[in-house]
Write a structure and sequence with these properties.
Layout (H helix, E strand, L loop, with lengths): L9 E4 L3 H8 L5 E4 L2 H8 L8 E3 L11 H11 L6 E6 L1 H9 L8 H5 L10 E6 L11 E6 L4 E6 L7 E4 L9 H20 L5 H24 L8 H18 L3 H13 L3 H19 L4 H13 L6 H9 L17 H12 L1 H4 L8 H11 L1
Parallel strand pairs: 1-8, 2-3, 2-4, 4-5, 5-8
Antiparallel strand pairs: 6-7
Pfam family, one: ADH_Fe_C
GO molecular function: alcohol dehydrogenase (NAD+) activity; metal ion binding
Keywords: Oxidoreductase
C-alpha cells in the first residue's frame, strides 16, 4: 500500500528558551550545534557548559558543504555523545542531522548511499528561522564541492526525534533572513500542493502555510517591516506546516532550478527559489491549466483578492515588498552558463523533478532560465 502521510518528530512548543532548556536538561553527553550569537543571546545561562558546543560559523559561511561537515567531524570525533541538538537555520539543522548517524564521513559516499545509514543518537532540532521546515523533514541538503552542486539525502534516519518551536528565537532575525526563509516556506507550501504525491492531508498543511504567510506579507506590505514582529509565531508555525507538507509530497522544479544559482553564486536559498517561482508556474499553467493548478490559483486569488488569471503578477507585487526579485544576470550569471544550469537540473536533481506538476523537457527548462536572464 502506498505511504500517504505521516509526521515523525514529536513537535513541542515552548514560550522561551529557558523553558526549552529546563525540559531537555542539555549538558554532558550532548552535542550542541549553535552559533555564538544565538548561544550568548538565548542559551548562555540555561545550558550546562559540559555539553560540547559546535559554533558552525567557524567552519564556513552560507549554505552547508561537505567540507564543512568533514571539518566538524574531524574536531568532534573523539567526543562521546548520545544526543544531538541543532539550534539554527536550515544550514545548521541539515548538518546536525548527519551527526545523529553512526557513520557520517566520507560525506560524498554517505550522500551517494555507499555507506550503511544507521541512526544511533537522539536528535532534537530547534529552528531559529521561519523557512526551511527542516526540523520536521528527513532531508539534508549540502553543496557537494567536488561536483559543485547541491545534493539532497532523504532517508528516514534523518528525522528528528523532537522538533522544538520557540518563537522567541525569531525576535532578532534580520529582515533579510526573515524574507528569504519565509519565502522558502511559502514555496514549500505551493510546490507540495501541486506535487503528484500530494493528497488531502498534505494539501491541508500546504494551504494553511500559504494562507498564514501571505496574510502576514499583506500586513507587512501595508505597515512596514517592523509589522512582522507580532507575527513571528505565525511564521514559525507556517514554516513547520509547510515542512510537513513537502516532507510528504516533495518539492519540485522551483527548488531544482534554484540549486545551481545557490551553489554557484551563493544566493540565499529562499531568494533563489523566488527568482524561479513565477516563471515555473506560468509554464505549468500553459501546459495543464485545468488540474490542481486551477485549484491553487483560485485559493491564492481569494487570499490576494484578485482574479485567478492575475495571480502570478499579484504574488510578485506582494513578494517584492518582502524581497525584490532580480534577473539572473544581476547575480553575475553569464548567459553561456544557462546550458550548464539546465544540464545540472536534468542530471543531478531528478529526485525533485519527479515531483513536477507536469514533466519538463530540457528545452523547457532552458527556456525558463533564458526568460529569467
Amino acid at each position: 500500500m502506498m505511504k500517504q502521510f505521516r509526521i515523525v518528530p514529536t513537535i513541542q512548543q515552548f514560550d522561551n528558551c529557558k523553558e526549552l532548556c529546563q525540559n531537555f536538561q542539555i549538558g554532558k553527553g550532548d552535542l550542541v550545534f549553535v552559533s555564538e550569537g544565538t548561544y550568548e543571546r538565548y542559551f548562555k545561562h540555561h545550558i550546562d557548559r559540559e555539553a560540547y558546543f559546535v559554533n558552525y560559523r567557524k567552519y564556513g559561511k552560507g549554505e552547508p558543504t561537505d567540507i564543512m561537515v568533514e571539518s566538524i567531524y574531524a574536531d568532534i570525533k573523539d567526543y562521546k555523545f548520545n544526543r544531538v541538538f541543532g539550534i539554527g537555520g536550515g544550514t545548521i539543522l541539515d548538518v546536525a542531522k548527519l551527526f545523529a548517524l553512526k557513520t557520517t564521513v566520507p560525506v560524498v559516499d554517505l550522500f551517494n548511499k555507499k555507506l550503511e545509514i544507521v541512526k544511533d543518537k537522539e536528535l532534537i532540532l530547534i529552528p531559529t528561522t521561519c523557512g526551511t521546515g527542516s526540523e520536521v523533514t528527513n532531508i539534508s541538503i549540502l553543496e557537494l564541492t567536488s561536483i559543485r552542486s547541491k545534493f539532497g539525502l532523504a532517508v528516514d534516519e534523518l528525522y528528528a526525534d523532537y522538533a522544538a518551536l520557540v518563537p522567541e528565537l525569531l525576535e532578532h532575525l534580520p529582515m533579510e533572513f526573515f524574507a528569504a526563509s519565509s519565502i522558502d516556506a511559502l514555496i514549500h507550501g505551493i510546490e507540495s500542493y501541486t506535487s503528484p504525491k500530494a493528497n488531502d492531508f498534505t494539501k491541508l498543511f500546504s494551504k494553511k502555510a500559504m494562507e498564514m504567510i501571505l496574510r502576514g506579507y499583506k500586513i507587512i506590505a501595508e505597515n512596514g517591516k517592523e509589522a512582522r514582529k507580532p507575527l513571528l509565531k505565525d511564521f514559525m508555525m507556517a514554516s513547520a506546516f509547510a515542512g510537513v507538507a513537502f516532507g510528504n509530497a516533495g518539492c519540485a522544479a522551483v527548488h531544482a532550478m534554484s540549486y545551481p544559482l545557490g551553489a554557484n553564486y551563493h544566493v540565499p536559498h529562499g531568494e533563489a527559489n523566488y527568482v524561479m517561482f513565477t516563471e515555473v508556474y506560468k509554464a505549468y499553467q500553459s501546459m495543464k491549466p485545468d488540474g490542481t493548478i486551477r485549484e491553487l490559483n483560485i485559493f491564492l486569488a481569494d487570499i490576494l483578492e484578485c482574479e485567478p488569471n492575475e495571480i502570478y503578477n499579484e504574488i510578485e507585487n506582494l513578494l517584492n515588498h518582502i524581497i525584490m526579485k532580480k534577473a539572473l544576470h544581476e547575480y553575475g550569471v553569464k548567459e553561456e552558463e544557462l546550458e550548464n544550469f539546465t544540464d545540472e537540473v536534468m542530471t543531478k536533481q531528478t529526485r525533485l523533478m519527479a515531483n513536477n506538476y507536469v514533466p519538463f523537457s530540457r528545452e523547457q527548462i532552458l527556456a525558463i532560465y533564458k526568460s529569467l536572464y
